[in-house]
Amino acid sequence: MWHRGLTCLTAIALFGIQLPILARESPPLLYAILAIGARQLERKEKAQSSFDSLELYEGAIRLLTPPLQARDTYFIAACVVLCCLEMFSASTQDWRHHLEGCAAVFDAFRVNGFSGGVSQAVFWCYALMDVCGALISDGTERTLLEPAKWLPNKTPENLAETLFRSTGSPDMYANYAVYLCAKACELISDRSRYVKLGEENGCDFPVFQDRSAKLWEKLSNWSLYCPKELPSVYSTVSNPFPHIFFAHWAAMSSNQLYHTTSILLLAANPKLKGAGLSPTTSFIWHAKIICGISLANPHEGCLNNAIQPSWIAGRLLSHSSEQALVVKTIRHIEALTGWTAC
Protein backbone atom coordinates (compact mmCIF):
# COMPACT_ATOMS: atom_id res chain seq x y z
CA MET A 1 0.00 0.00 0.00
CA TRP A 2 2.89 2.39 0.62
CA HIS A 3 4.04 2.21 -2.99
CA ARG A 4 2.03 5.30 -3.91
CA GLY A 5 2.01 6.16 -7.57
CA LEU A 6 2.31 2.64 -8.87
CA THR A 7 -0.09 2.12 -11.72
CA CYS A 8 0.84 -1.34 -12.89
CA LEU A 9 0.98 -4.94 -11.78
CA THR A 10 4.62 -5.19 -12.85
CA ALA A 11 5.58 -2.30 -10.59
CA ILE A 12 3.61 -3.74 -7.69
CA ALA A 13 5.52 -7.00 -8.11
CA LEU A 14 8.80 -5.09 -8.18
CA PHE A 15 8.00 -3.15 -5.01
CA GLY A 16 6.31 -6.03 -3.22
CA ILE A 17 8.84 -8.73 -4.07
CA GLN A 18 12.01 -7.52 -5.74
CA LEU A 19 12.78 -4.49 -3.56
CA PRO A 20 12.67 -6.53 -0.33
CA ILE A 21 15.02 -9.01 -2.04
CA LEU A 22 17.35 -6.18 -3.09
CA ALA A 23 17.17 -4.83 0.46
CA ARG A 24 19.08 -7.90 1.70
CA GLU A 25 22.14 -6.44 -0.02
CA SER A 26 21.41 -2.77 0.64
CA PRO A 27 21.12 -1.54 4.24
CA PRO A 28 19.88 1.94 3.17
CA LEU A 29 17.05 0.38 1.17
CA LEU A 30 16.19 -1.98 4.04
CA TYR A 31 16.03 0.91 6.50
CA ALA A 32 13.93 2.94 4.05
CA ILE A 33 11.40 0.11 3.60
CA LEU A 34 11.14 -0.44 7.35
CA ALA A 35 10.82 3.30 7.94
CA ILE A 36 7.91 3.79 5.57
CA GLY A 37 6.16 0.73 6.97
CA ALA A 38 6.55 2.12 10.47
CA ARG A 39 5.33 5.56 9.37
CA GLN A 40 2.22 4.07 7.81
CA LEU A 41 1.37 2.18 10.99
CA GLU A 42 1.93 5.31 13.07
CA ARG A 43 -0.33 7.34 10.80
CA LYS A 44 -3.10 4.75 10.70
CA GLU A 45 -2.99 4.11 14.45
CA LYS A 46 -2.52 7.83 15.24
CA ALA A 47 0.43 6.93 17.44
CA GLN A 48 1.73 10.22 18.85
CA SER A 49 4.51 8.78 20.98
CA SER A 50 6.14 6.40 18.49
CA PHE A 51 9.43 7.45 16.91
CA ASP A 52 10.31 4.19 15.17
CA SER A 53 9.85 5.65 11.69
CA LEU A 54 12.02 8.67 12.49
CA GLU A 55 14.86 6.52 13.85
CA LEU A 56 14.73 4.21 10.83
CA TYR A 57 14.54 7.21 8.47
CA GLU A 58 17.61 8.78 10.06
CA GLY A 59 19.41 5.44 9.77
CA ALA A 60 18.64 5.27 6.05
CA ILE A 61 19.83 8.85 5.53
CA ARG A 62 23.11 8.18 7.34
CA LEU A 63 23.76 5.15 5.15
CA LEU A 64 23.02 7.13 2.00
CA THR A 65 25.34 9.97 2.95
CA PRO A 66 28.65 8.45 1.71
CA PRO A 67 29.78 9.37 -1.83
CA LEU A 68 27.04 8.93 -4.40
CA GLN A 69 29.25 7.92 -7.31
CA ALA A 70 27.57 4.50 -7.56
CA ARG A 71 24.55 5.00 -9.77
CA ASP A 72 22.92 1.78 -8.70
CA THR A 73 19.36 0.61 -8.37
CA TYR A 74 19.65 0.38 -4.59
CA PHE A 75 20.37 4.06 -4.18
CA ILE A 76 17.62 5.22 -6.56
CA ALA A 77 15.03 2.91 -5.01
CA ALA A 78 15.93 4.00 -1.47
CA CYS A 79 15.60 7.68 -2.45
CA VAL A 80 12.10 7.13 -3.87
CA VAL A 81 10.94 5.12 -0.86
CA LEU A 82 12.21 7.86 1.45
CA CYS A 83 10.45 10.47 -0.67
CA CYS A 84 7.19 8.54 -0.25
CA LEU A 85 7.79 8.47 3.49
CA GLU A 86 8.47 12.21 3.64
CA MET A 87 5.25 12.98 1.80
CA PHE A 88 3.15 10.64 3.94
CA SER A 89 2.44 13.25 6.57
CA ALA A 90 3.80 16.41 4.94
CA SER A 91 1.62 19.42 4.35
CA THR A 92 0.79 20.01 0.72
CA GLN A 93 2.92 23.16 0.76
CA ASP A 94 5.98 21.01 1.50
CA TRP A 95 5.40 18.36 -1.16
CA ARG A 96 7.53 19.98 -3.85
CA HIS A 97 10.38 20.41 -1.40
CA HIS A 98 10.42 16.67 -0.72
CA LEU A 99 10.18 15.85 -4.42
CA GLU A 100 13.15 18.04 -5.41
CA GLY A 101 15.75 15.54 -4.24
CA CYS A 102 14.24 12.68 -6.26
CA ALA A 103 13.94 14.87 -9.34
CA ALA A 104 17.63 15.72 -9.07
CA VAL A 105 18.57 12.03 -8.73
CA PHE A 106 16.61 10.95 -11.81
CA ASP A 107 17.97 13.88 -13.79
CA ALA A 108 21.58 13.29 -12.77
CA PHE A 109 21.42 9.52 -13.30
CA ARG A 110 19.42 9.92 -16.53
CA VAL A 111 16.75 7.47 -15.43
CA ASN A 112 13.47 7.82 -17.31
CA GLY A 113 10.14 6.09 -17.74
CA PHE A 114 11.61 3.59 -20.21
CA SER A 115 14.84 2.65 -18.42
CA GLY A 116 13.59 -0.85 -17.67
CA GLY A 117 13.56 -2.95 -14.52
CA VAL A 118 13.40 -1.56 -11.02
CA SER A 119 14.65 1.86 -12.11
CA GLN A 120 11.67 2.25 -14.43
CA ALA A 121 9.23 1.13 -11.75
CA VAL A 122 10.52 3.57 -9.15
CA PHE A 123 10.55 6.32 -11.79
CA TRP A 124 6.79 5.98 -12.33
CA CYS A 125 6.26 5.95 -8.57
CA TYR A 126 8.06 9.29 -8.46
CA ALA A 127 6.35 10.61 -11.61
CA LEU A 128 2.86 10.32 -10.19
CA MET A 129 3.91 12.03 -6.98
CA ASP A 130 5.40 14.79 -9.10
CA VAL A 131 2.12 15.16 -10.99
CA CYS A 132 0.16 15.28 -7.74
CA GLY A 133 2.45 18.04 -6.51
CA ALA A 134 1.78 20.01 -9.69
CA LEU A 135 -1.98 19.48 -9.32
CA ILE A 136 -1.87 20.89 -5.79
CA SER A 137 -0.30 24.09 -7.13
CA ASP A 138 -3.57 24.82 -8.94
CA GLY A 139 -2.02 25.78 -12.25
CA THR A 140 0.97 27.74 -10.99
CA GLU A 141 3.60 25.00 -11.23
CA ARG A 142 4.61 22.28 -13.67
CA THR A 143 6.23 19.00 -12.64
CA LEU A 144 9.73 19.35 -11.21
CA LEU A 145 11.05 16.88 -13.76
CA GLU A 146 9.81 18.18 -17.10
CA PRO A 147 7.86 15.61 -19.17
CA ALA A 148 10.48 15.68 -21.95
CA LYS A 149 12.86 13.97 -19.50
CA TRP A 150 10.37 11.20 -18.89
CA LEU A 151 11.16 9.84 -22.35
CA PRO A 152 14.40 8.24 -23.58
CA ASN A 153 17.13 10.76 -24.34
CA LYS A 154 16.56 12.87 -27.48
CA THR A 155 13.10 11.39 -28.12
CA PRO A 156 10.88 14.04 -29.81
CA GLU A 157 7.80 14.63 -27.68
CA ASN A 158 5.54 14.31 -30.71
CA LEU A 159 6.50 10.63 -30.74
CA ALA A 160 5.48 10.02 -27.12
CA GLU A 161 2.10 8.48 -28.00
CA THR A 162 3.71 6.06 -30.46
CA LEU A 163 6.39 5.20 -27.90
CA PHE A 164 3.92 4.35 -25.13
CA ARG A 165 1.61 2.40 -27.44
CA SER A 166 4.45 0.46 -29.06
CA THR A 167 5.35 -1.17 -25.74
CA GLY A 168 2.21 -3.31 -26.03
CA SER A 169 1.86 -3.08 -22.26
CA PRO A 170 -1.38 -1.96 -20.59
CA ASP A 171 0.75 -0.90 -17.63
CA MET A 172 2.81 1.49 -19.75
CA TYR A 173 -0.32 2.73 -21.51
CA ALA A 174 -1.70 3.53 -18.06
CA ASN A 175 1.50 5.46 -17.35
CA TYR A 176 0.84 7.40 -20.55
CA ALA A 177 -2.14 8.96 -18.74
CA VAL A 178 0.28 10.17 -16.05
CA TYR A 179 2.46 11.69 -18.77
CA LEU A 180 -0.50 13.46 -20.40
CA CYS A 181 -1.53 14.93 -17.06
CA ALA A 182 2.02 16.21 -16.60
CA LYS A 183 1.84 17.80 -20.06
CA ALA A 184 -1.44 19.51 -19.13
CA CYS A 185 0.12 20.89 -15.93
CA GLU A 186 3.09 22.11 -17.97
CA LEU A 187 0.84 23.88 -20.49
CA ILE A 188 -1.35 25.54 -17.87
CA SER A 189 1.67 26.68 -15.88
CA ASP A 190 3.33 28.11 -19.00
CA ARG A 191 0.18 30.05 -19.88
CA SER A 192 -0.31 31.29 -16.32
CA ARG A 193 3.28 32.52 -16.11
CA TYR A 194 3.05 34.19 -19.51
CA VAL A 195 -0.16 36.04 -18.64
CA LYS A 196 0.27 36.78 -14.93
CA LEU A 197 4.03 37.10 -14.56
CA GLY A 198 4.96 38.32 -18.02
CA GLU A 199 7.36 35.41 -18.47
CA GLU A 200 8.67 35.23 -22.03
CA ASN A 201 8.12 31.50 -22.55
CA GLY A 202 6.38 31.78 -25.92
CA CYS A 203 2.97 30.69 -24.61
CA ASP A 204 0.95 33.52 -26.20
CA PHE A 205 -2.71 33.00 -27.09
CA PRO A 206 -2.22 31.38 -30.55
CA VAL A 207 0.48 29.04 -29.24
CA PHE A 208 -1.65 28.17 -26.21
CA GLN A 209 -4.65 27.39 -28.40
CA ASP A 210 -2.55 25.17 -30.64
CA ARG A 211 -0.86 23.32 -27.79
CA SER A 212 -4.13 22.75 -25.91
CA ALA A 213 -5.91 21.48 -29.04
CA LYS A 214 -3.10 19.02 -29.79
CA LEU A 215 -3.02 17.82 -26.18
CA TRP A 216 -6.81 17.41 -26.17
CA GLU A 217 -6.50 15.24 -29.30
CA LYS A 218 -3.86 13.08 -27.62
CA LEU A 219 -6.06 12.75 -24.55
CA SER A 220 -9.01 11.71 -26.71
CA ASN A 221 -6.78 9.15 -28.40
CA TRP A 222 -5.78 7.77 -25.00
CA SER A 223 -9.39 6.87 -24.31
CA LEU A 224 -10.06 5.73 -27.87
CA TYR A 225 -7.10 3.35 -28.14
CA CYS A 226 -7.08 1.92 -24.62
CA PRO A 227 -6.01 -1.72 -24.49
CA LYS A 228 -8.75 -4.10 -23.42
CA GLU A 229 -7.46 -4.22 -19.82
CA LEU A 230 -8.11 -0.53 -19.08
CA PRO A 231 -11.78 0.26 -19.86
CA SER A 232 -14.37 -0.39 -17.14
CA VAL A 233 -15.90 -3.85 -16.93
CA TYR A 234 -19.22 -2.76 -15.43
CA SER A 235 -21.00 0.41 -14.38
CA THR A 236 -24.20 1.26 -12.56
CA VAL A 237 -26.37 4.37 -12.61
CA SER A 238 -26.33 5.59 -9.01
CA ASN A 239 -26.88 8.86 -7.17
CA PRO A 240 -25.09 11.10 -6.73
CA PHE A 241 -22.24 9.34 -8.60
CA PRO A 242 -22.19 6.39 -11.01
CA HIS A 243 -20.30 3.32 -9.83
CA ILE A 244 -17.70 2.26 -12.38
CA PHE A 245 -15.82 -0.98 -11.83
CA PHE A 246 -12.42 -2.00 -13.20
CA ALA A 247 -10.70 -5.37 -13.26
CA HIS A 248 -7.14 -4.12 -13.74
CA TRP A 249 -5.43 -2.13 -10.99
CA ALA A 250 -3.73 0.12 -13.54
CA ALA A 251 -7.13 1.01 -15.00
CA MET A 252 -8.41 2.67 -11.84
CA SER A 253 -5.85 5.42 -11.40
CA SER A 254 -5.17 5.94 -15.11
CA ASN A 255 -8.85 6.52 -15.86
CA GLN A 256 -9.13 8.93 -12.96
CA LEU A 257 -6.15 10.84 -14.33
CA TYR A 258 -7.71 10.87 -17.80
CA HIS A 259 -10.81 12.56 -16.39
CA THR A 260 -8.72 14.90 -14.22
CA THR A 261 -6.67 15.99 -17.22
CA SER A 262 -9.87 16.56 -19.19
CA ILE A 263 -11.11 18.91 -16.46
CA LEU A 264 -7.81 20.80 -16.44
CA LEU A 265 -7.82 21.34 -20.20
CA LEU A 266 -11.50 22.29 -20.41
CA ALA A 267 -11.05 24.81 -17.61
CA ALA A 268 -7.97 26.30 -19.23
CA ASN A 269 -9.44 26.47 -22.74
CA PRO A 270 -13.27 26.49 -22.89
CA LYS A 271 -13.09 26.52 -26.70
CA LEU A 272 -12.25 22.81 -26.53
CA LYS A 273 -15.90 22.18 -25.73
CA GLY A 274 -16.81 23.05 -29.32
CA ALA A 275 -20.38 22.73 -30.45
CA GLY A 276 -20.80 19.05 -29.70
CA LEU A 277 -22.97 17.47 -27.04
CA SER A 278 -20.48 14.78 -26.03
CA PRO A 279 -20.27 14.20 -22.27
CA THR A 280 -16.48 14.40 -22.60
CA THR A 281 -16.83 18.19 -22.85
CA SER A 282 -18.71 18.43 -19.53
CA PHE A 283 -16.84 19.35 -16.33
CA ILE A 284 -19.51 17.77 -14.17
CA TRP A 285 -19.53 14.50 -16.11
CA HIS A 286 -15.79 14.08 -15.61
CA ALA A 287 -16.04 15.10 -11.93
CA LYS A 288 -18.75 12.54 -11.20
CA ILE A 289 -16.82 9.78 -12.97
CA ILE A 290 -13.75 10.55 -10.83
CA CYS A 291 -15.79 10.27 -7.64
CA GLY A 292 -17.59 7.15 -8.87
CA ILE A 293 -14.31 5.36 -9.53
CA SER A 294 -13.14 5.96 -5.95
CA LEU A 295 -16.42 4.73 -4.49
CA ALA A 296 -16.61 1.57 -6.59
CA ASN A 297 -12.94 0.52 -6.44
CA PRO A 298 -11.72 0.42 -2.84
CA HIS A 299 -8.35 -1.07 -3.80
CA GLU A 300 -5.66 0.79 -1.86
CA GLY A 301 -3.54 1.23 -4.98
CA CYS A 302 -6.43 3.21 -6.43
CA LEU A 303 -7.33 5.19 -3.32
CA ASN A 304 -3.76 6.36 -2.72
CA ASN A 305 -3.85 8.07 -6.09
CA ALA A 306 -7.39 9.43 -5.78
CA ILE A 307 -6.77 12.29 -3.36
CA GLN A 308 -5.89 15.06 -5.83
CA PRO A 309 -8.41 13.98 -8.51
CA SER A 310 -11.15 13.87 -5.85
CA TRP A 311 -10.18 17.34 -4.63
CA ILE A 312 -10.30 18.74 -8.17
CA ALA A 313 -13.63 17.04 -8.87
CA GLY A 314 -15.13 18.11 -5.55
CA ARG A 315 -14.56 21.79 -6.27
CA LEU A 316 -16.85 21.52 -9.30
CA LEU A 317 -19.75 19.94 -7.41
CA SER A 318 -22.28 22.31 -5.88
CA HIS A 319 -24.86 20.09 -4.17
CA SER A 320 -24.24 19.56 -0.46
CA SER A 321 -24.83 15.79 -0.67
CA GLU A 322 -22.19 15.48 -3.37
CA GLN A 323 -19.69 17.58 -1.47
CA ALA A 324 -20.31 15.62 1.73
CA LEU A 325 -19.65 12.33 -0.05
CA VAL A 326 -16.40 13.64 -1.52
CA VAL A 327 -15.24 14.77 1.93
CA LYS A 328 -16.22 11.39 3.38
CA THR A 329 -14.24 9.64 0.64
CA ILE A 330 -11.13 11.73 1.28
CA ARG A 331 -11.34 11.11 5.03
CA HIS A 332 -11.77 7.40 4.36
CA ILE A 333 -8.61 7.39 2.22
CA GLU A 334 -6.65 9.05 5.02
CA ALA A 335 -7.95 6.61 7.64
CA LEU A 336 -7.34 3.53 5.48
CA THR A 337 -3.93 4.38 4.04
CA GLY A 338 -2.46 6.87 6.51
CA TRP A 339 -1.75 9.23 3.63
CA THR A 340 -2.31 12.91 4.42
CA ALA A 341 -5.52 13.93 2.71
CA CYS A 342 -7.70 16.30 4.73
From TrEMBL:
Signal sequence, renumbered to the chain: 1-23
InterPro entries referenced in this protein's UniProt entry, alphabetically: Fun_TF
Molecular function GO labels: DNA-binding transcription factor activity; transcription cis-regulatory region binding
UniProt xrefs under Pfam families: Fungal_trans_2 (PF11951)
Keywords: Nucleus, Signal
UniProt-annotated location(s): Nucleus
Chief place where the protein resides: nucleus
GO biological process, any: positive regulation of transcription by RNA polymerase II
Cellular-component GO terms for this entry: nucleus
Keyword Signal: yes
PANTHER family, sorted: MISCELLANEOUS ZN(II)2CYS6 TRANSCRIPTION FACTOR (EUROFUNG)-RELATED, TRANSCRIPTIONAL ACTIVATOR PROTEIN UGA3
Listed name of the protein: C6 zinc finger protein
